Amino acid sequence: MIDFIKGALLITGALFMLLAAVGLLRLPDLLTRMHATTKAAALGVILIMLASAMHFAEVGVVARSFAIIVFILMTAPVAAHVIGRAGYFVGSRLWSGTVKDELRPNYDPLTHELKSGLETQENAKRYPRDSDPD
Amino acid sequence: METVILISQVIMGLTLLLTFVRVVRGPSLPDRVMALELFSTTVVGLVGVYAIQSGVASFLDAAIVIALMGFLAAIGFARFLERGGPRDD
After folding, report:
1. What pLDDT does A124 receive?
2. Interface list for A 15-74 with B (CB within 8 A)
3. Under an 8 A CB cutoff, do B30 and A83 touch?
4. Residues in chain A with pLDDT < 70?
5. Residue A61 falls within a domain, yes or no?
6. Residues from chain B contacting residue A22 (CB–CB below 8 Å)
7. What are the residue boundaries of the structural domains of chain B, listed by start?
8. Is position A120 within any domain?
9. For A107, phi and psi rounded to 5 degrees?
């Protein structure tokens, strides 16, 4: 029984990794490729580490497997965010079918300045408050 | 069990091949960094499977180190891209 579960976890994890690679190869631009790789590959590693934890079934090994799972879960989104941000600022082109790019009207690539979209003359004024020190 | 391990290793080898195609072809540097990240993740999976195959649990420590190196490489590449060094895609 446990062999069957282990085998199913291994094959499923490997297939999710293959899915990530196919997505990396087939999708049209950087952000969609990132969307394919980070989630599917992280899920694949999680399944394989669950299989190894079930195979050894000792406290130390299970703790190490779960350490790897937590590490992957914490670092994969951070790395994807950082690379996507750098790719946008470097100017990698989006797919021609992109519907919405909300960063574009608010970001100035020359000065590297980001607006919140609320900078009007009225908002720039400062009204004195009662709690201000004299 | 041996057959299942062999099949999953073959699938992950195929994953490495497909990822390598993107590393070679990728039109820009961020695409290649992304592919390298997937590379390191796949190698972590391969090391986990090899730990099961050989029965030596210490390989999982190597997997932790490989995951850490992949993450640091991604962060370093992203900082390099944003600072803007000499680029040749």
Report:
1. 67
2. 15, 17-18, 20-22, 24-25, 30, 33-34, 37-38, 41-42, 44-45, 48-49, 51-52, 55-56, 58, 60-61, 64-65, 67-68, 71-72
3. yes
4. 117, 119, 123-124, 134
5. yes
6. 18
7. 2-83
8. no
9. -120, 130
Task: Please count the structural domains in chain A.
Answer: 1
Asked whether residue A117 is assigned to any structural domain, the reply reads no
Distance CA A92, CA A41 (A): 23
Segment B5-29, tens digit of pLDDT = 999 999 999 999 999 999 998 788 8
Q: Which of A2, A4, A6, A10 to mutate to test the interface with B (most CBs of B within 10 A)?
A: A10
Question: A123 in a domain, yes or no?
Answer: no
Per-residue confidence band for B37, with pLDDT thresholds at 50, 70 and 90: very high
Among A7, A24, A55, the residue with its CB nearest the CB of B22 is A24
Here the tokens at position A80 are 């994807």
Judge: B30–A75 Cβ closer than 8 Å, yes or no. Answer: no
Q: Domain range holding A10?
A: 2-95
Q: Which pTM value belongs to this model?
A: 0.84
For chain B, the C-alpha Rg in angstroms (whole number) is 15
CATH of the domain at A29: 1.10.287
